[in-house]
Amino acid sequence: MPPIPASITAYTLTSALGAGCAATLAALCGEGPGLRRCTLPGLDLDTWVGQVEGLETAPLTGALADYDCRNHRLAALALGQDGFRERVAEAARRHGAGRIGVFLGTSTAGLNHTEQCYRRYFEQGRDALGADLRYAHTHTNFALAACCRRLLGLAGPALVISTACSSGAKAIAAGDRYLRAGLCDAAVVGGVDTLCATTLYGFQSLELLSPRPASPWGLGRTGISIGEGAGFLLLERAASAPGQSALLGTGESSDAHHISSPHPDGDGAVLAMTAALARAGLAPAAIDYVNLHGTGTPVNDRAEDRAMARVFGPGVAAGSTKGATGHTLGAAGAVEAALCLVCMAGGLLPGTQGTKVQDPDLALRVLTHPRPGAPRRVMSNSFGFGGSNCCLILGQP
Amino acid sequence: MTPLHLIGVGLVAPGLPDWESTGAVLTGRRPYVAAPIPPLAPAALPSNERRRATLGTRLALAAAEQACAGLALDPRELSSVFTASESDLGIIDRLCTDIFGRHIPVSPTVFHNSVHNAVAGYWSIAHGCRQASTSLSAWDGSLAAGLLECAAQLADTDRPVLLVAYDLPGPALLDSHRHLEGPFACALVLSAAALGAAQPVATLALDLTTPGVPDPLPPGLDPALEVLRVGNPAARVLPLLYRIAAGGEGTVRLPYLEDLDLLVRVGRQ
């Protein structure tokens, strides 16, 4: 028998679909606003992005002023939704602040802020990046956990995982592991990533950035649209209350193939999915919906399609929301875990925004439009550069 | 928590080319002579990957290879934890300079090396290792966070885990904001039982505690070693390695978070 899975006692997300669960569900149901043309200042790129509104005018102040940068503004905005902060405060009263860990994923950290310092350095011919870089509070990966720990008043173990596009999912798996090891009684897990020049130009250099809105699984798909987002879950070591979801299983693997391309047959993805099913003690048929990694690059979707066929055969409901949110990179695993929880609570199969005609060469038929449903157990895939794979299973124990 | 069994150690730093000589230096049996690290050519990597591997990758892989040498375990059977406060700052500097200073397209190879887990990716390719691998950061407590992550993994599975802690100095523009000594990489192979060890090294029992003053190196050693210890998050391992090399038992306090330290109680196998 697998051990009692960690219960998910709170969750929230903020992305281009909106701030909080209700806005996200409404946008998914209405196939509402998501990607827009990239008009970020100073960038010369023909692409579409999933941008979060209002971050430019929401600086962190007071005790958090040193942490002020786009990534931490987004973290603070997201933590303020759905009563998440309050639920964490209640958990801290129950368990003690020192028994609640913080495990977060990011690929960008505060790079957007560092870039602005570099831009100023070159444009103004300065001799240094400037003291307002506040490196320890913005640029370094761990600043995300330090900022959230302070914002939430927590004092337990903490780390930041940075494994490219699997970071957010792996942070959730790490928090789950710390709970099972008894290193903490509750864990704030999640991921935050923000738009910046380096990732946009970097994916362009690899010819993976789409000039059109991303079309996962689509015929003639041309690559990813990058988004920004934040997703957080509160995990607790306790049996789930009736109706409450749990983290049923996690699976992690490495491709051992290439730094920036997936294994063509999805070998590593298969290992991660089967490991998550084994830990959950579930057969593939027990999964009601698969939230695909589904980035929209020709190669990624083909590899994941092969992996899906190997694990599930032809028949499982599945889709990718990256045509709605954009690919939120280091946050994607956490944003999409929260999105799956929103869909389970809201009775929705979210569908694959941006895809009208599916690639006939892919075996798996994805849902193109949102559809009412009652998924009880959902699998969410995250696969990243470096061949880093992580699969989560969430739902009713 | 159940003690971890340390079954392999590797180390690469200026004047400390391997675990054997590091042990001799830390116990005063050999003087410390600062010297540049030797050229590192990760032989296990295919030639394409070897050409693309950065100094940080070559450094981390060299320490990892040392730690795995002599084990009765195939490296592909190990899961892995890579911990670095900053990883490779030279890459960030290069990308930002190309974009904002030189206004040229960024190099795809430089970009793909920019992910924090590139090192882990190269390690998995080098050995065809498909086990789980994670790459994490916790500022000056990155070593302690790596040890805790290994303990959490070993509480969960009996698969041995390779821990690699590394950091290296960045370019001048960033060094004034985050000064790092080194380069420094240390690799530890940890297991739930002393299985597969060529020579069992020590047991490590971990405990979290309120912050105090992390243990320095013992007096009498070359002060350059203490400069290295406080100047590189991975080199925070040196007092722990001293305790192990000295063969005794004892407790070493390592920095972790601003409000938590990690106590490592070292025992004999």
Give average pLDDT of chain B, whole number: 94
Give the overall shape of chain A.
globular
CATH 2nd-level architecture of chain B: 3-Layer(aba) Sandwich
CATH superfamily of chain B: Thiolase/Chalcone synthase
Percentage of residues assigned to helices of chain B: 25-40%
- Strand fraction of chain B: 15-25%
Largest sheet of chain A: 11 strands, mixed
**Could you say how many structural domains of chain A there are in total?**
1
Count of domains of chain B: 1
H/I helix tally of chain A: 12
User: What oligomeric arrangement do these chains adopt?
Assistant: heterodimer
Number of strands of chain A: 16
Order of helices and strands of chain A: EEHEEHHEHHHEHEHEEEHEHEHHEEEE
CATH fold-level topology of chain A? Peroxisomal Thiolase, Chain A, domain 1
List low-confidence stretches of chain A.
none
Low-confidence stretches of chain B: none
- Provide the CATH top-level class of chain A: Alpha Beta
Q: CATH architecture of chain A, please?
A: 3-Layer(aba) Sandwich
Task: Please give a handful of descriptors for the protein shown.
heterodimer, A: 397 residues, alpha/beta, Peroxisomal Thiolase, Chain A, domain 1, 11-stranded mixed beta sheet, 3-stranded mixed beta sheet, 32% helix, B: alpha+beta, 8-stranded mixed beta sheet, 22% strand
